[in-house]
Please model this.
Amino acid sequence: MANLKTTEKKTKAQSMGLHTEVLTGKTQQKFFNPDEAENFYYWGTYDVDFNKRTELDVNDMDCKEANKKIDELMSQGYGTIVIKNPQGKHSLGVGILNKLNLIFEGSLGYFGVGSIDGPTVRVNGRVGWSCAENMMAGKVVIEKNAGSCFGAAVRGGDLICKGSVGARTGIDQKGGTIIIGGDAGAFTGFMMQRGRIVVLGNVGINLGDSMYDGTIYVGGKIGSYGSDAIESPMTKSDIDWLKRKLKVAEIGEDFDVSKMTKVVAGKKLWNYDALEPTEKKGAI
Amino acid sequence: MAKKKNKKSSKKISKGQLGKKKETAREKMIGQTIGYRYDVNLLPDYSRITPFLKKYIEAMGWDDLNWLEDVHMGYEEDRPAVFDRNANGWVTIPKKIKLPNNQQDRDMIARELLVKFQMSPNHPLVDLKKAYRKF
Model:
């Protein structure tokens, strides 16, 4: 339970009797040990070998069976798994919390490869709504187009679509990088809080609507800016990072990144002031 | 004239001095900091990557820092710390670790320490997994 601690130094608001206590002890006081061993292994994950390869035909399996089978193969040490005949099934390859090379020979349905933490995924087809939702780490490459809500609430890692994507790409994004080789629909970067979105083509209306933070780079035309999304000058650091990232993403290596438009939050919607409701109450 | 200029510039807070920014009137009034005290959107400078991080990237089969691009050295109760999303808390840097006054280098150290901590058998998630893991 959090401890209540009285602050010694009184601010103007506190002396007015609006706020006298702060909550402490909400986090655990953990310290790094600088002499920690280098083991490159997360406890509880499978130690897989990328050179150990296998194929899995999911034609007659439902998503639950297929995902269980992938887990079973990882437990046997397979580091490269090729999924045959995914046939647009929903929720395939979700919840993989391991390093892995996963290749889908076909298209995925809704919520493909969601909540993953670590694997490198390649989809040699299209994907439906909410691909890689809540992704924590890893790399996902989509060879063709993607549906709406591509990379919703992504927290980390690289999510790449070589084709075009639907609306609300990177909605509620909290980290990581989303790269689109083609065009993106309306409300791209909607309520984005952190991370980066790179669109080499055009974007639809309301780009970065209500974004709190993060950065959006656009190579083509912008339909319109959303609330609190503003243009910002490109820096050398942006250009160097974009060149490197597009090379890693296997798209747009020859693209002139210096001509891209950088969009950031105007920070007018920032409302991190926890005392505001109390003050409002006092004012009434 | 030149001497006066030098005096003025020495008083200025440079961008490299982390955690020290001029308080706004609003911040003074409410007694808390608004927003971050470091640049959360800072893109990593790959020329400053540490040998450990290079090995980690190779072991994971990635081409760059991947999720670690979003990891920065922050602050917890006025002390340098890194947020560990797996433990859902800030992990404080011990005083004996000397930190450079440059955010790029500090971020690289933060990334290295965080990875080492997460892969350690002493990580709090290990006990949680032992107790609650279903499959």
